UniProtKB/TrEMBL annotation:
The keyword Hydrolase applies. One of its GO terms (molecular function) is hydrolase activity. The lineage of its organism: Bacteria, Pseudomonadati, Pseudomonadota, Alphaproteobacteria, Hyphomicrobiales. Residues 326-606 form the PRTase-CE domain. Keywords: Hydrolase. It comes from the Bacteria. Pfam families: PRTase-CE. It comes from Bradyrhizobium oligotrophicum S58. This is Metal dependent phosphohydrolase.
Length: 616
């Protein structure tokens, strides 16, 4: 490595005397070093002095496809697998999927000579510069750091396809021959290194831990912010006969993020020193823009309690909350906000099975009583609105109160098609769902069935994704318009009814929408400054604005993004249901997106948003 560095420096300085030294075959090791020490180039003198004193570089950073670590734990999100069990699936993705080929190829050796490539020389300079920044930040915290400037060596992944097929060797008789005469091996290095294809960043031993952090930071987003696409097979090795689609396409950002434990062990670094440096850098704000590089959240009792509390949550595509997803969700926050984020999660109201069924029953009973007050003999149909959450809500109601519903003559249907096939003009239909907040989803579904969704004046209604995307035939549309329509949910907001009325009236839908009922109100409940730090609230607002902008595919944040940053209407809601999240809840908790060129994944997900996930 030192020899390669000397050779590179000689070419760059164009020093004829120095170049003559390096191309001379008459020098011994000692005379060569003597002549190098007498050159006018300072860098050459330093490198030669290190060679003479056997002050050889130490491995400071290691990288390999085998060291891959997920930034967004999508296997755990969609399957509930532990981090250890999920590891083989991540390794398969990074070694076989197109978005990641550029990373692996970009870190391979490209030169067929001893001279390093220009790209890799630039990497060495950037890592050395970043190491100086880190050393300066650590010095502010009273940490003793090495003096001078580190000399960094970037050793790329071996590229077996471009390496020489034979090398010059001396035989035992002192003759110069080719290794190709004796072996078909493409290169004479450790078979273990070939098998693992490991690259390294080396430096002086006293700089090792700092250079590790510097290399990690420089390489993290080295491959830019171009957004790709990737299909995720949701079966994760399981055989399924389900007719439902098992692939979900997500967006991808290329990031260089490795399992630190593997890299540090390979380089024999002091993990305690690394952790200490990171903790001090976190306090200086060094990791605020790239918080995933800060000290990661450990598996603590607090995190286990959070995961256990929300273990019943089952979102789109079986989205789950696990210890791993809680850890990685918190890792997205700058270190100074992570305790605030834990407190926010602890303050959420979660509707478990028992609570959800009781609230929905209360809403349905109130609606039935209101209908029967006008006409005791009126027929009432009970139908899930649309999507998994609505069907699950109805199933929960049936399991808990089926006998009660039968006794009062309620007719239960699996779908709007089934209901419209038997309902008669003037009868009542109660759609059920788990929540209604802004009224957007309910309005969009009704208008979609009628073929009027695209006619809405509201972009959020036109673009609503958490609905069934089919239009009823003309006879079914006519029948739906002849029925008295109501909605019942577990939780809802007081202004939802007015919003739905306005959406339907604008397009002249012709529906008889007579009202909605819910078991518990989603009241606006902003946290006071004593409950949430203003700086943390500003961060949540920033994340919410960027996530709404991202999923709306807008180039810049607009007033709509600002109005939905802390939940629709900025209501700062804190409710999560068994299968969904109301739009009034803090947006950062349920909406994926790209924030400050980094993927943001929510701990929960609102129905229709899982397809907009961004992984890296």
């Amino acid at each position: 490595m030192l020899a390669v560095a000397i050779f590179n420096a000689a070419i760059e300085t164009e020093d004829e005397d120095w170049s003559e030294v390096l191309t001379s075959f008459t020098e011994t090791d000692d005379t060569l070093l003597d002549r190098l020490l007498k050159t006018k180039c300072t860098s050459a003198q330093q490198l030669a002095q290190k060679l003479r004193g056997r002050n050889l570089p130490k491995r400071a950073f290691a990288f390999s496809p085998d060291f891959y670590a997920p930034i967004v734990p999508y296997v755990s999100i969609f399957s509930g697998l532990s981090a250890a069990d999920a590891a083989p699936f991540y390794h398969h993705e990074v070694t076989s999927k197109d978005p990641f080929h550029e990373i692996v190829q970009g870190l391979k050796e490209k030169s067929k000579t001893f001279r390093s490539s220009k790209i890799h020389l630039e990497l060495e300079q950037r890592i050395a510069h970043e190491a100086l920044i880190i050393a300066s930040e650590l010095s502010k915290k009273g940490t003793a750091t090495p003096v001078g400037t580190p000399i960094v060596f970037f050793i790329p992944l071996p590229d077996h396809s471009s390496t020489p097929t034979s090398c010059a060797i001396f035989t035992h008789e002192g003759e110069l021959e080719s290794s190709g005469d004796y072996s078909r091996a493409q290169q004479l290095i450790s078979a273990k290194e070939i098998g693992r294809s490991i690259g390294f960043v080396n430096c002086s031993p006293d700089w090792a831990e700092i250079v590790f952090l510097a290399a990690q930071r420089v390489l993290y987003d080295y491959f830019g912010n171009d957004i790709g696409q990737m299909d995720i097979d949701l079966r994760f090795g399981k055989i399924s006969d389900s007719s439902h689609a098992r692939l979900v396409q997500v967006r991808v950002l290329k990031r260089f993020y490795i399992a630190e434990s593997l890299a540090a062990r390979r380089c024999r670094l002091d993990r305690k020193t690394l952790t200490s440096y990171r903790e001090k850098l976190s306090k200086t704000g060094y990791y605020d823009k790239k918080p995933r590089l800060a000290v990661p959240e450990r598996r603590t009792t607090n995190i286990e309690d959070i995961a256990d509390r929300f273990k019943e949550f089952s979102g789109q595509y079986n989205w789950q909350v696990t210890v791993e997803t809680v850890r990685q969700f918190l890792n997205q926050f700058p270190p100074r906000f992570r305790e605030d984020a834990r407190r926010l999660l602890a303050s959420l109201s979660f509707l478990n099975r028992e609570t959800a069924s009781a609230l929905l029953q209360e809403a349905v009973e109130k609606t039935i009583q209101a209908i029967r007050q006008d006409d005791e003999a009126q027929t009432i149909h009970l139908v899930p609105l649309a999507g998994t959450s609505a069907h699950m809500a109805l199933e929960l109601l049936k399991q808990e109160f089926r006998q009660d519903l039968r006794l009062i003559g309620i007719r239960i249907h699996k779908s709007v098609h089934e209901m419209l096939g038997v309902a008669k003009p003037g009868e009542n239909v109660i759609f059920v769902d788990d929540n209604i907040s802004s009224g957007t989803q309910f309005s969009a579904q009704l208008l979609r069935w009628l073929g009027l969704q695209d006619k809405s004046d509201k972009a959020e209604v036109r673009k609503e994704a958490g609905i069934e995307f089919f239009e009823l035939d003309d006879n079914a549309k006519s029948r739906l318009r002849e029925l008295k329509v109501r909605l019942c949910t577990c939780v809802g907001k007081d202004d939802s009814y007015g919003n739905v009325e306005r959406h339907l009236a604008f397009v002249d839908a012709g529906l008889k929408f007579l009202g909605l009922s819910y078991g518990r109100a989603l009241a606006a409940d902003p946290l006071s400054p004593t409950e949430i730090a203003p700086a943390f609230l500003d961060f949540l607002r920033h994340v919410g604005e960027e996530c709404i902008r991202s999923v709306s595919e807008l180039p810049v944040i607009d007033d709509v993004c600002r109005s939905k940053a802390l939940g629709y209407g900025n209501t700062q809601g804190r409710t999560v249901t068994l299968w969904n999240v109301p739009t009034s809840t803090f947006t950062a908790l349920w909406c994926p997106g790209i924030v400050d060129d980094e993927p943001w994944f929510p701990l929960f997900v609102r129905r229709g948003y899982a397809d907009r996930l961004v992984v890296a």
